[in-house]
Amino acid sequence: MHVHSVRTRRSADEFPRDQHLAWKIAEVAADPVTVPADTEAMVINRIIDNAAVSAASVIRRPVTVARRQAQAHAASSGGLTGGPGANVFGVSGGYSAEWAAWANGVAVRELDFHDTFLAADYSHPGDNIPPLVAVAQQLGIGGNDLIRGLATAYETQINLTRGICLHEHKIDHVAHLGPSVAAGLGTMLKLDTETIYQAIGQALHLTTATRQSRKGLISSWKAYAPAWAGKVAIEAVDRAMRGEGAPSPIWEGEDGVIAWLLGGPEKLYEVPLPGPGEEKRAILDSYTKEHSAEYQSQAPIDLARRMRERIGDLDQIATIVLHTSHHTHVVIGTGSNDPQKFDPDASRETLDHSVMYIFAVALEDGTWHHERSYAPERAHRSETIELWNKISTVEDPEWTRRYHSTKPEEKAFGCKAVVTLKNGEVITDELAIADAHPLGARPFARENYIDKFTVLSDGVIDQREQDRFLSVAQGLADLKAGSLGALNPLVDAVVLDKAPTTPEGIFK
């Protein structure tokens, strides 16, 4: 890996374009390096994972709205190769790629249940999959090129997440997703460095937004934000392919992203990227979720399940203090100062970002479910509310250090729970990483991804269609040009009929 120093440059400075971060990423994307077998296998795992969580969310209201918007945009042409258009998850018919990516991106993100990478900032790199698959379907791309594109997309987003913190400046993490989708599409479509460079600049310029989408009372926009970034990146690549340019240097410019949205003119960022000919393996450093909750609550859920028997009667709890990292404390803990995180009437998205609620329910139930654990009647139980309000978080410098550690054996996203009983007895336990983490007690492997898909597809996709999809996905590298429509599992019509009725909008 090469570590690139990135900082603001004055317009009058001598700053050759080949030194721009966007150009360096474009060079990585244009490098025709072979995808290693373990990267390819993990790409397939994550495609299965995305399909699993999409099945679980398919008739939820935000997903239904996005799907209906997409269905109003049939593909008018197949672009360069005359393909049949892109597929919207669960339904037949060809739609315009950017709108299919929009709908499928919302389906993937709605339940906060797919893959994650945490470093200097946050990311859900599986958000790259819907836009790349949609474009591949519309243009008739083969499976091997899709794999190459996704390897680049993961590499780009994960390495930007390693080097550039957006959160401390209250910029939403999808600002790393726009460039990664553009880079991944560049690889998949075998575009030249110049075209990819312009597309990356446009995609970043148009996908920077504040983190208010994840603050206070969190709305359905949390699910829409990455879908928007993917849609915008597709359109940026289309414009760049037609010869249009972008603001540059987009990160380093005097009025660019670093100068005014991030650390300012004095800030230096260090961004690692593969060198020429170096394999793209960053996807192997990411991890998926066993539980439908914000990633930093994965280990606390497992810890709560482990502590139940030691605690015994939960009514005897006086207080619970979760000692954890800065990020966990201020984003999903009491350090956020969000009263909504203790509100039983709060949205699902808000409860998903309340480790206090999540730890209470996991202690009581000994399990976690993507629907039952968030149900209004579950959040309104009087004993749950009482326990919930006994839980707080504090930042522990050691947990913060481990959160940011670059050593895999040290990196941690968990907490130490200090449970004080009414009789004064103190029970403590800690868990650094979730059981499903690659270094956890039960690391996810192919069979776990398949099991997750099977469980979440039960009653949504019939057994034969499940088997067909899994067979196609696992043979992705061998899928010929024009056959990627088979990656779309169809949902039973009786299930889709249960989707909520929503008001009409502009699009018909």
In N-to-C order, the SSE pattern is EHHHHHHHHHHEHEHHHHHEHEEHHH
Overall mean pLDDT: 95
How are the strands ordered across the major sheet?
4-3-5-6
Shape: globular
Biggest sheet details = 4 strands, mixed
Q: Mind telling me which CATH architecture of the largest domain this is?
A: Orthogonal Bundle
> Mind telling me the C-alpha Rg?
22 Å
For the record, the count of structural domains works out to 2
**How many strand elements?**
6
CATH superfamily of the largest domain: 2-methylcitrate dehydratase PrpD
Tell me the span between the first and last alpha carbons: 49 Å
CATH topology of the largest domain: 2-methylcitrate dehydratase PrpD
Fraction in helix: 40-55%
What's the CATH class of the largest domain, please?
A: Mainly Alpha
Fraction in beta strands: 5-15%
The unreliable regions are 78-82
The tally of helices reads 20
Secondary-structure-based class equals: alpha+beta
GO biological process, one term: tricarboxylic acid cycle
Domain MmgE/PrpD C-terminal: 291-475
EC number: 4.2.1.3, 4.2.1.79
Pfam families: MmgE_PrpD_C, MmgE_PrpD_N
